[in-house]
Amino acid sequence: MAAGPVDYADVIVVGLGPGGEDAAGRLADAGLDVVGVDERLVGGECPYYGCIPSKIMVRDADLLAEGRRIPGHAGTAMVHPDWHPVARTVREATMDWDDKIAVDRLTGRGVRFLRGTGRLTARDEVTVADGDGNETAIRARRAIVLAVGSEPAVPPVPGLARTPYWTNRDAITAEEPPRSLLVLGGGAIGLELGQAFSRFGTAVTVVEGGPRLLPREEPEAHELLLRVLTEDGLNVHTGAEVGSVEYGDSCGFTMRCARGERFTAQRLLVATGRRTPLAGLGVVAVGVDPDARAIPVDERMRVIAPGGGRPGVWALGDATGKGAFTHVSMYQAELVVRGVLGEGGAPAAYHAVPRVTFTDPEVGAVGLTEAEARQRGLAVRSGFTDLAASSRGYVHQTGNAGFVKVVADMLSGVLVGATAAGPYGGEILGALAVAVHARVPLAVLREQIWAYPTFHRAIGDALKDALAGSPAP
C-alpha cells in the first residue's frame, strides 16, 4: 500500500488520450465520480504530436506539390517553400502544446483531474505521483480504466541512445526544416513526415531494415510508394539493417548499415513503431505480465471482469494491441463505457479496422491483406485494377496514379480486405470499409453502379477482376 493520503472514486481513468478522455467524460456525464490521471497533455498524442499537426504538415507539403504540377497543365508557376506558416499553424492548432482548454473541458464535465504518473498498486488502487514526487493513492469503487497509450519505440542500435535523435514529437515541433534528414523506419510516420520535409527542401533518406515499405500493407503499396517517393526526390533503401549510429556537432549523424552503406544527415528521425511500457504501469497488480507487448482484454475490453464486490479493470487504446489508431481507441471507449455502466451491447469486432497512410499518394486499407487471408486458410481470390485504367484523365490531372485491390473469401462470398492507394485513397477506402464491416455479399457488390470518372469506380473494376471466371457467389 502506497504511503500518503488516500482518496476514493467510482472510476479511475489512467491516461487521457482521445479514448481515455472520452470514457472519463462520458462516465462523469452518467453521474459517476471519476478521477482522470495523466502525466502529459490531456488529449494525448493525436492532437499535439500525431494525427492533427502531422496532417497540417502533410497537407501544406501537398500544396507545394500541386503548385509544381501547374506547368504543362494550367499555365506557369514558381513555388517557393516557406516553413514558417506551417510551424505557426501547428503551434496554433496545438495551442502551443498547452492543454488548458482540454483540461477545462474535462473538468467542466465533472471529472477530477490529477496531473501525474499513475500506477496500479493494488487491484482496486492507483497511486499517482506528481512532478514533485508527492504520492496520492486512489481506490476505485467501481472501475479502473487503463488508457495509457504508447510512446515511440527506439531500437537498440549501437550508439543511437547517445545521440540527439528525433522522434515524431521533435519533428512536429521543428521551427525550421533540416537541411538533410535520415528517417529510420519505412512505416507510416516515417514516410509521411519524410515526404513532407522533402517537399520543403530537405534532402531525405529513408532507411528500412525490412524488405518493404509499409510492411503491414500489400506489396503493391510498397512498389507504388517506392517509385513515387524516389521520383519525389527521396532516397529510399530497404533491406538495410542499421549497424551503428554516431553524432558529432560539426558533421551531424552518421549511420552505418550491416551491408556497407553509410548515410549522413543533419537530423535523424527514428520512426520504428511504438510501444507501451507496461512495467511502470504496475500491471502485475492485476495479474498481467509486465513484459507483455499488450494488456490482454476480452471482447468487452475487460482485463478483469467486475465481481465479488471488487471493481472491474478495463483497458483501451494502444495498450491493448488492437491497433495504434485514434479511431480504435474511440471505438473501444464506447465498449468500456457501456461495460462500466452495465449497458451491454455488441462485443468488440476488429475484422474491418481501417488504416490510412497519408503520403501522396495515400494508402488506405481495411481488414486482411491477401497474405494474411491465405495464412488463415481462407479460399482467397484477389482483384486488382490500376487507377490510370479506370480514371485516365483525372489521374493525369491529379499527379500520382494508384490502385485498388480487393481480397475476397470465395467460400463466404464476402470481402475480407481491401486497399485503395492513390489520390484521396483514404476517402475511397470508406466504401470498401463499409463492405468489409457489413460483410456485404459479392453478389450485391458486383451489381453496384459506380460513378464515372471518379476514383472509387476502380472498386468495381477490382471486383470484376476478382470475380472473373467464377460463378456468382
UniProtKB/TrEMBL annotation:
Cofactor(s) this protein cannot do without: FAD
InterPro entries: FAD/NAD-bd_sf (IPR036188), FAD/NAD-binding_dom (IPR023753), FAD/NAD-linked_Rdtase_dimer_sf (IPR016156), Pyr_nuc-diS_OxRdtase (IPR001100), Pyr_nucl-diS_OxRdtase_dimer (IPR004099)
Domain of life assignment: Bacteria
UniProt KW Flavoprotein keyword: yes
Pfam families linked: Pyr_redox_2, Pyr_redox_dim
Keywords: FAD, Flavoprotein
Ranges for domain FAD/NAD(P)-binding: 10-333
Transmembrane portions of the chain: none
Keyword DNA-binding: no
Domain Pyridine nucleotide-disulphide oxidoreductase dimerisation: 353-462
Similarity remark: Belongs to the class-I pyridine nucleotide-disulfide oxidoreductase family.
Cross-referenced PANTHER family: MERCURIC REDUCTASE
Name of the protein this chain belongs to: NAD(P)/FAD-dependent oxidoreductase
Organism per entry: Streptantibioticus parmotrematis
